[in-house]
Design goal:
heterodimer; A: 426 residues; alpha/beta; Rossmann fold; five-stranded parallel beta sheet; four-stranded parallel beta sheet; 17 helices; 13 strands; B: 349 residues; alpha+beta; Phosphoribosyl-aminoimidazole Synthetase, Chain A, domain 2; 2 domains; seven-stranded mixed beta sheet; four-stranded mixed beta sheet; 22% strand; globular
Chain lengths: 426, 349
């Protein structure tokens, strides 16, 4: 189904918000983005969803990806849904599923092996053992005298490679995290490093896979046996599916009888996917459907898949925060590229560390609890001082609810409507 | 008896010369730097007194004083540089109190090896900004730190102004029903810096909005509208500034996303970098909280001034014990517009 079909508008009539709002020249207007955030189309979709839902039942859908969680919270999608449609946040946030022991490994690389660790911003804030985080280690660099290493925040793995080229005197390690979307770029980096003959670049590989995580949720006792968590379907990942295609989800539809709709990360994508899921549930169907057909095919990106399999192989097992040890759920660097594997080069081993006893990140990541049901949500655990990883990344369920949605936990204040009439002055 | 020969002092080499440790030592080197560079551009009767402090005529009314350190990187960016930014930043802090800015003091921390030519450009830019704003730099200081211990130049400016009795703009005066006005499109300064730093080609058209706002504020005061609070949304952007006012006043706010003025190139650059224009710094914009009945009067006065042409009502104040700043999204849902967490863009001003 395309967006326009769902709300009975021809594509050529998609109102661009610059026109829809007013003629103010400084109004934002981004073609091919604003169309997917348009208020008028959203109202049309919301009406279609209201018409489609059966009032005698609840619908519980999990959006697997943190990108969807973020879009739902940031655009207030929940406000446009009927009260019997519930969105459950899934574990698809790469920072959130990193166990404490993995961050500890990165810290040991800096403090003991003396490497220059290059990391994206979010992992720096994840709490590690002993009250540490990479950010705290960074702040204390040079002060405690016995930390020979360094820490750099980067926006792209390519920055880490470039830094290694510019600083042959330093050993540079890239902390590689992420699902299937970010894996091909890491594979490219490792191949480039090999081609350049770089002796001072390696990767701490924490790349994980989406399908085993979905399988783990569907096989969980809360879902299968106890029935304490009921799931009627999944919104499948957007960017991950551009790489792996929609085929890997077919077994969830067949084996577990759960419909899956792969959707883009814009709010209207999410709403359309919800409508498609509701229609499947009502019709008793469990199929894999593709809302994100502008970017995703059934088979995915062969070239990227080939590149990944050339550089990486499956790990026998990998510890996920919240989901525990999952077999064949993550990647490690192949022996042919062992020189670029920081785990091998520095002989750092993963050691399991228990989460904070009050932290409910595990239950939140499995969809068993909502962020506000955690005792320390918003009190001890806030984005400024995160205790659990779900409060760190803006894609984390707790951070998204805290930053965008926690007003819903309080009674709505009076006089909060703006504009009062259809459009305020100005 | 022969007269002592007048020593020849080689003029500062503004083309190839660099800041040396001697330029901060208090000796002849420093005197030369002050004379040939700082005094040349910034010179005025007060600075020319040449004493340890400037002696100024007493002003009537209440004194308003503010200070601001500037550490922006890069030092030169589209639309400005650290020099004019240091002048505008402090003038704006004084002006949003409803005060007339009168004098500035400036202190420079220079890094050994910094090109004198760049320093001259910065000081010249500062002088032009101060002259355009009619707020002279009346006293200053220079220190030099070793190579590697600074980042070219840091500038701290301190300003003094006067405000009449009864003119009290403060963050704790917003009341339910008040309207929130922004003076123009948001996020330009932060994104101009970021585009330069990240080398984003398509965003190179973004120009910093750095400007002195006291003229616009004078026009707003002259309109007679009941203004409760004024603030310039610098670091942390509009979102953080509104949260400060909401907390100080003990109120909530509701914004309308579609009413926020954002230039298309700023929106695109923010989208590209995963940033939210509400949290990006401005250096030539202000937020005004105005009594509901005076909203149109104030808006008209603002739009008649060159720095307020794009002024828009973006939201409303309401009673809320939680002091949430919320927003109706373009999609039609609601969300919180929270305090900025962590560091979105470091070293932008």
């Amino acid at each position: 189904m395309r967006l326009a079909e769902a709300v009975h508008l021809p594509v050529t009539d998609l109102p661009i918000s610059a026109q829809a709002v007013d003629a103010n020249a400084s109004r934002r207007s981004m073609r091919f983005i604003d169309e997917f955030r348009d208020g008028e189309l959203a109202r049309g979709l919301a009406a279609a969803i209201r018409q489609a839902v059966r009032p005698d039942r609840d619908y519980r859908f999990m959006e697997f990806c943190g990108g969807h969680t973020h879009a739902i919270a940031r655009y207030g999608v929940t406000d446009l849904l009927p009260p019997n449609v519930h969105m459950i946040h899934g574990p698809g946030c790469p920072v959130c599923v990193l166990p404490i022991g993995r961050i500890d490994m990165a810290i040991r690389l800096v403090r003991e092996a003396g490497v220059t660790l290059c990391s994206y911003g979010d992992p720096l804030r994840v709490p590690a053992s002993g009250g540490l985080s990479l950010l705290k280690v960074k702040a204390a660099l040079g002060r405690d005298g016995n930390t020979p290493g360094d820490l750099r925040m980067i926006y792209s793995g390519a920055d880490a490679l470039a830094f290694a080229q510019q600083h042959p005197e330093r050993q540079v390690v890239f902390l590689a995290i992420g699902f299937e979307t970010t894996t091909p770029p890491t594979a490219v980096l490792i191949r480039q490093a090999q081609a350049l003959g770089l002796r001072n670049f390696s990767v701490l590989c924490c790349h994980v896979l989406t399908p085993p995580a979905i399988a783990s949720i569907l096989a969980a006792t809360e879902v299968r046996q106890w029935g304490s968590v009921s799931l009627d379907g999944f919104i499948g990942p957007a960017h991950v599916s551009t790489i792996i295609g929609t085929r890997p989800y077919e077994r969830f539809a067949e084996e577990y009888r759960k419909p899956v709709v792969v959707a883009g990360f814009e709010p209207l994508d999410v709403m359309l996917a919800i409508l498609m899921l509701i229609k499947q549930v009502n019709a008793g169907r469990a199929l894999v459907e593709n809302e994100f057909s502008r970017a995703v095919t059934r088979d995915g990106n062969h070239r990227a898949q080939h590149l990944v399999s050339e550089v990486f192989e499956l790990r026998r097992s990998f510890a996920w925060r919240g989901l525990g040890e999952l077999p064949y759920s993550a990647l490690r660097i192949r022996q042919a590229f062992a020189d670029f594997d920081a785990e091998q080069r520095y002989a750092v081993r993963y050691e399991a560390v228990a989460d904070h006893p009050a932290c409910e990140c595990g239950a939140v990541l499995r969809g068993v609890k909502q962020p506000r049901q955690c005792r320390i949500f918003g009190s001890v655990c806030t984005p400024e001082n995160p205790v659990g990883s779900c409060m760190v990344s803006s894609e984390g369920a707790c951070a998204a609810h805290y930053s965008f949605g926690r007003f819903a936990d309080a009674a709505p204040p009076a006089g909060a409507d703006f504009p009062d009439s259809p459009q305020a002055s100005g | 008896m022969k007269a002592v020969r007048q020593a020849y002092i080689r003029p500062l080499d503004l083309r190839h010369g660099c800041v040396e440790m001697s330029h901060g030592s208090g000796g002849r080197g420093m005197a030369q730097l002050i004379e040939e560079l700082f005094a040349r551009w910034l010179g005025n009767a007060y600075l020319g007194q040449g004493n340890d402090a400037a002696v100024l005529p007493a002003a009537t009314g209440r004194l308003v004083m503010s200070t601001d350190a500037h550490v922006v990187s890069p030092l030169f960016f589209p639309g400005g540089d650290i020099g004019c930014l240091a002048v505008h930043g402090t003038i704006n802090d004084i002006a949003v109190m409803g005060a007339t800015p009168l004098y500035l003091a400036a202190s420079f921390i220079l890094e050994e090896g910094f090109p004198l030519g760049d320093l001259a450009r910065i000081v010249e830019s500062m002088a032009r900004a101060a002259e355009a704003a009619a707020v002279p730099v009346v006293t200053g200081d220079t220190k030099v730190v070793q190579r590697g211990k600074g980042d070219g130049v840091y500038i701290t400016t301190t300003g003094v102004g006067v405000v009449a009795e009864g003119e009290d703009y403060a963050g704790d005066r917003a009341r339910p029903g008040d309207r929130i006005i922004v003076s123009g499109s948001i996020g330009e300064h932060g994104m101009a810096i970021m585009a330069q730093r990240e080398n984003i080609g398509f965003a190179s058209a973004i120009v910093s909005d750095t400007a002195a706002l006291h003229g616009l504020i004078a026009a707003m005061r002259a309109s007679g509208a009941t203004i409760r609070a004024l603030r310039d949304p610098t670091r942390g952007g509009v979102a953080t500034t509104l949260n400060e006012i909401a907390r100080q006043s003990g109120v909530g706010m509701m914004l309308q996303e579609s009413a926020l003025p954002v230039l298309p190139e700023v929106a695109a650059a923010c989208e590209f970098l995963g940033l939210d224009p509400l949290y990006v710094a401005n250096e030539g914009k202000l937020l005004a909280i105005v009594a509901p009945e005076d909203t149109d009067t104030l808006l008209q006065a603002m739009r008649a001034h060159p720095l307020g042409r794009q002024a828009a009502v973006i939201g409303k104040v309401h009673a809320d014990a939680q002091h949430f700043v919320q927003m109706t999204t373009g999609l039609g849902g609601r969300r919180i517009v929270d305090w900025l967490t962590g560091e979105q863009l470091p070293r932008i001003c």
